[in-house]
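Action item from last meeting closed. Structure (161 res):
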């Protein structure tokens, strides 16, 4: 017999609550992540709803707090632009209101300064000699990271004459 069919652990309601409290206390989580985790634990939909309610009530789970922490972290550490942050938050089913308040966490001056530093640093790494190809490589990199196209093309034209 194949043992992988019997290795699935089953959790009681209280065990699942404790596990999810720890999961949410360790790092900010969104509802979607917690729901997926509970589904992987083979919890029934009614238990999932009750556990989510408990986590929200006890303030382990807060989508606005998650969105703000996510935006600050991805901007500060990974240097993502607003488009990428918004796309990732939408993927996690975060509301438009929470996305807007998350983006408000990023100061406009910091945003432009980080964008400028990132563009200059990346340009130094591009070995291409052809100015048009250099511009395209720089723009592709910045667009992939979620920076707005008008900023990207202005910066590419400014840095590569």
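Sequence:
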């Amino acid at each position: 017999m194949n043992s992988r069919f019997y290795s699935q652990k089953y959790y009681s309601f209280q065990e699942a609550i404790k596990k999810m409290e720890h999961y949410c206390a360790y790092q900010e989580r969104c509802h979607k992540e917690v729901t997926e985790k509970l589904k992987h634990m083979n919890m029934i939909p009614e238990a999932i709803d009750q556990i989510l309610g408990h986590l929200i009530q006890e303030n382990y789970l807060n989508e606005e707090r998650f969105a703000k922490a996510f935006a600050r972290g991805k901007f500060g550490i990974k240097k993502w632009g607003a488009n990428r942050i918004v796309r990732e938050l939408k993927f996690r089913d975060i509301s438009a209101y929470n996305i807007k308040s998350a983006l408000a966490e990023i100061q406009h001056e910091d945003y432009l300064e980080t964008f400028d530093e990132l563009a200059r640093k990346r340009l130094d790494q591009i070995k291409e000699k052809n100015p048009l190809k250099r511009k395209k490589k720089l723009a592709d990199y910045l667009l992939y990271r979620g920076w707005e196209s008008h900023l990207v093309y202005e910066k590419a034209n400014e840095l590569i004459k």
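Note appended to the action item: The CA atoms of residues 115 and 121 lie 10 Å apart.
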